[in-house]
Design goal:
This protein is an alpha+beta fold. The chain has eight helices and five strands; from the N terminus they run H-E-H-E-H-H-H-H-E-E-H-H-E. Helices cover 43% and strands 10% of the residues. Strands 1-2-5-3-4 form a five-stranded antiparallel β-sheet. Strand 3 and strand 4 form a beta hairpin.
Length: 208
């Protein structure tokens, strides 16, 4: 069954091995990678949106939850541990590459939001991030350094992360949180704009 045309239009507008951080990561220049320039119905309307920005440089305020608050404090000059923000464009890219975008399209005829959100979370909690997003995360970790990091979003906070796989898992959790999926399913049902949210990877301070 084809998704409602209003849902399709709104979503298309919206989407356009275990080692420590100190080891060599074989990095590629992805920290400020931009979207592909060829036409893509899931591409951001600007066509050239950053996947990451340094904490304090991102355009988020308190309305973006914990990430926005920390970003505003960093922007004001308050000293704090370094961090890299995975922008909404990274979230958009995840939705497309994982297939979750299409499952959200299929939610247009749903009426039970909680059940649909839980179903989608079960379906995607074991999915692997695509290589571009994994490269973005590796670059972010190299940028901020530190023995451990925290991953923070509007709904999820994971602390004490000491390896790349654990950080990837935490980012995935942030993107498929039950509350976040509920907001997306609700927006799809209502034919509104599908919400995206930033995720912060931040170095943790250690005494001694």
């Amino acid at each position: 069954m084809s998704p409602p045309s209003g849902v399709l239009i709104n979503l298309c507008q919206m989407i356009g091995p275990y080692c420590s951080f100190e080891h060599s990561l074989g990095l590629i220049p992805l920290l400020h990678m931009e979207s592909d320039e060829h036409h893509d119905p899931f591409q951001d309307s600007s066509g050239r949106a950053s996947l990451t920005l340094k904490l304090g440089d991102a355009p988020y305020g308190p309305e973006a939850g914990h990430v926005g608050v920390l970003n505003s404090l960093a922007r004001s000059g308050l000293p704090m541990p370094g961090g890299v923000v995975l922008m909404e464009e990274s979230h958009r890219r995840f939705l497309k590459s994982s297939g979750l975008a299409w499952d959200l399209l299929a939610s247009g005829g749903e009426t039970e939001v909680q059940g649909r959100a839980l179903e989608l979370r079960r379906r995607y909690r074991g999915c692997a991030l695509e290589e571009v997003l994994r490269g973005v995360i590796r670059n972010a970790l190299a940028e901020i350094g530190g023995r451990t990091v925290a991953v923070i979003s509007k709904d999820v906070t994971c602390m004490g992360l000491h390896s790349i796989p654990r950080v990837e898992e935490a980012v995935l959790r942030a993107w498929i949180s039950t509350n976040g999926l509920k907001r997306q399913v609700e927006a799809t049902i209502q034919g509104g704009e599908i919400p995206l949210w930033p995720v912060l990877i931040q170095r943790e301070l250690h005494e001694g």
